[in-house]
Amino acid sequence: MERTGKELIEYLKEMAVWVRRETLKVHRVAPETRLASSLSDIEIFVALYYGGILKQNPKDISWEGRDRFIVSKGHGGVSMYPILADLGFFDKRELSMCCQEGSILGCIPDTVIPGFETINGSLGHGLGVACGMATALREKKSGSRVFVLAGDGELYEGAVWEAVMLAPQLKLGNLVLIVDRNKVSMLDFCSEIIDLDPLDEKFRGFRWMVRHVDGHDMREVYEGLLEFKKDDSPVPKVIIAETIKGKGVPRLETDCLSHIKSLKEAEVDALLDGLKCSIK
């Protein structure tokens, strides 16, 4: 039965809890994964995949009619692993082998993993690639959309702003950028490195349609994505999702070095004990 309205939002909230649990389990297996970065974008992934925003076919990952999704902040893509496994993109047993020899799952996702469109180890290139994809889809008169997830620290890369300037010039109304604005880069708070404020005005200055959401409010995230998915204007769109790096792990949430911190197995187990989910 298809879920709608309040029932759908409650379901998505439960799924976000489940994905947070599963991401912690993956980190317990592979402590070299970037946990804090992967916890800030969970609600975004859940809305896209379980909210029906993305058109995808796990049995045909090259299906021409699919929406494209580029995880430009690749280090934060680990929380997508449980989702893709759950939806049938690959065997769930892979989750227990992350970063081990012979596994398709690594610290940084790449195209060997079914469901990932691009290799994103080097930051700053995802939006430019997405502009190319969006242009090609428009020329084919395809109704498919291109979604991109970028981190706010990634916005320091000049290639990002080249793509930001290009997209409105090409009238790429089928392009949606989501900025995971968790305000922490690799070695400090973003405000102490390069302050991006006012970020919304920067995008508006380059002729983007802008929407702010609380990146951990499931309703706001879902409705923001759905609105832009349906918008047919020839204007690129950006959702600025205000998030918390390390969401759900108190000692990471306030640590300016959370990007490079790992948890011990006992810490993960304690967090799992307090994080209950009734769905899975």
What does this structure look like?
This protein has 280 residues and is α/β, with parallel strands linked by helices. The protein has one domain (5-273): Rossmann fold. It is 39% helix and 10% strand. The protein has 11 helices and 5 strands, in the order αααβααβαβααβαβαα. The chain has helices spanning 5-29, 35-39, 42-50, 80-86, 126-139, 158-169, 190-193, 199-205, 218-230, 250-253, 265-273; strands spanning 68-71, 146-151, 175-181, 209-214, 237-242. A 5-stranded parallel sheet has the order 1-2-3-5-4, sandwiched between helices. Helix 1 (5-29) packs antiparallel against helix 11. The protein is globular, with a radius of gyration of 18 Å. The mean pLDDT is 96.
Which features does this protein show?
single chain; 280 residues; alpha/beta; Rossmann fold; 5-stranded parallel β-sheet; 5 strands; globular
- What percentage of amino acids are in beta strands? 5-15%
CATH architecture: 3-Layer(aba) Sandwich
**Helix fraction bin:** 25-40%
Low-confidence runs of at least 5 consecutive residues:
none
Structural class: alpha/beta
Major beta sheet summary = 5 strands, parallel
The first-level CATH class is given as Alpha Beta
What average pLDDT do the residues reach?
A: 96
* Strand line-up of the largest beta sheet: 1-2-3-5-4
For the termini, the CA-CA separation is 17 Å
Global outline: globular
> How many separate domains?
1
